[in-house]
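Before going further, learn to read the protein records used in this course. A complete example follows; check for yourself that the lines match position by position.
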Amino acid sequence: TDALAAVQESKADMVIGGIVATEDRKEKMDFSMVYTTNTQDILITGRANIKTLDDLQYCKIGVLKNTPAAVYCAEEYGEDNIRLFDDMRELLMNLSSFRVDCVVIDRDLAEYIVYNTSVSYLCDYCVEDYQIGVAKGNSALKDVINEVLGELIADGTINGIIDTYYHGYFS
């Protein structure tokens, strides 16, 4: 994404928010300690004939471009089964119009969609660790970030922020 590239090109000091340290990203940048985890869920329409994760090998799976979910799904089910989308609106429109059989998205958004539409929850797909990305070799900044994150995790501030601004966003 643009934010990741900005850090890699020294146009920004860090990238925060839903950042997962994939193997590819670890080659290009360094990462803080894990500050929270997130679950990716699989959503289906009532018309999809999907009962288990094994059934996904025969499906068109919708995911957002440049996300760990896109990487995981391509590795697990093959790139021919993956449909990449630029934004969430496009992804969900393709699910509701049956152009894809299922989508893999963040848990909180998945819960909101299931509650407010006819889309169904199939199962958890994977759990991701969220970290802050910094330029490769910038250990001074990474050390400061880790120190501050440690304090914010210990006193409950991180969980409070996540509960208020992330989990509560779709309520």
User: Anything to note?
Assistant: The beta strands are 14-15, 29-31, 36-44, 61-64, 82-85, 102-106, 120-130, 133-135. The longest strand covers residues 120-130. The chain has a mean pLDDT of 88. Residues 126 and 138 are 30 Å apart (CA to CA).
